[in-house]
Amino acid sequence: MIIGCPKEIKNNENRVALTPGGTLDLVRRGHTVLIQTGAGTNSGYTDAEYVESGAEVVADIETVYARAETIVKVKEPIEYEYKLVREGQLLFTYFHFASSRPLTEAMVRSKAICLAYETVTGPKNTLPLLVPMSEVAGRMAVQEGARYLEKPAGGRGILLGGVAGVPPARVLILGAGVVGTEAAKMAAGLRANVTVMDINLDRLRYLADTLPANVTLVFSNEYNIRRELPRTDLIIGAVLIPGAKAPHLITRQMLGEMRDGTVVIDVAVDQGGCIETCHPTTHEDPTYTIDGVIHYCVANMPGAVPFTSTLALTNATFPYLLQIADKGWERATAENEGLRAGLNVVRGEIVLPEVAEAFGMPVVS
């Protein structure tokens, strides 16, 4: 199989979907690997390292798409790439279709096969290809939130952990999945006063036994959220419904209940966001303010730490890529139920119900 890895062109996306180590394994199994020049530079990998691993380094993104049977990426194709995607070509990447109708319609028109990292499932309905980046994003959310609580960044001028004689900041985390749990660990480790909300009582019971005493677990509903807003300094949106658009747990009207300088970090923004006033931003221009509330809504947060993120991501994705390369996507998805769950669009047809429902489009079973 010919596998192509283009350089990511989304704003400040510094990760790469294939390392030299992965390249070496693919080449030794008889596959051809095309790497766009500079694709791994920001993650610490030179073109020479890819060449030493047996890859063919090509000059431009157009060549990668034109020659490869399978494209492996980190983030969804952006508008420039739509015209490069070929009928019957497999794209293996994060898509988050439910948050973008233009992307969905473009991939349907292309008649490509779109296999999304975020809906591949593992044992007990886990999401093994989403977990590593959720871990990174959850930890980063607290890091970025602490930064924007500082006065020069527009925040309330409050230190997350406080000091002796001065109370710490209050952190509200919406969602107790991987993102929410990692954010809670980080915020609690910095001695903040943390509240985590979720509707899954079993998950809340589990976290009650594993998280430290400065974390309070609360059932999530509008009443409980509204009660927290006036006294919260940092809010982290960490809601995930696999493949579907995130629900709005905080509305525009509810911003009026927060203090000026409150910071919201919506990690769910690449699935539409769980805070109504959030829209995707970039690392180049990460924040904006509405009603005195600072919004940080970068849709590719882990792209800021590519040395960590690339390895964490490829450790998880590469075994699946090997199956696809060795067997072809049709046999690989037929034999691996979890990988089959990653199919979102196949030859012009939406096959994941959550994507179809997001836009009122037909779904093919």
Automatic annotation (TrEMBL):
Domain Alanine dehydrogenase/pyridine nucleotide transhydrogenase N-terminal residue range list: 4-137
EC number: 1.4.1.1
One GO CC annotation: plasma membrane
Binding sites annotated in the UniProt record for NAD(+): 134, 198, 203, 220, 239-240, 267-270, 298-301
Highest rank taxon of the organism: Bacteria
Chloroplast in keyword set: no
Catalytic activity from the UniProt record: L-alanine + NAD(+) + H2O = pyruvate + NH4(+) + NADH + H(+)
Any single GO BP term: L-alanine catabolic process
Pfam families cross-referenced by the UniProt entry: AlaDh_PNT_C, AlaDh_PNT_N
Chain ranges of the Alanine dehydrogenase/pyridine nucleotide transhydrogenase NAD(H)-binding domain: 149-297
Positions of the catalytic residues: 96 (proton donor/acceptor), 270 (proton donor/acceptor)
Keywords: NAD, Nucleotide-binding, Oxidoreductase
Binding-site list for substrate: 15, 75
Record InterPro entries: Ala_DH, AlaDH/PNT_N, AlaDH/PNT_NAD(H)-bd, NAD(P)-bd_dom_sf
Gene3D superfamilies in alphabetical order: NAD(P)-binding Rossmann-like Domain (3.40.50.720)
Family recorded in the similarity comment: Belongs to the AlaDH/PNT family.
Name the record gives this protein: Alanine dehydrogenase
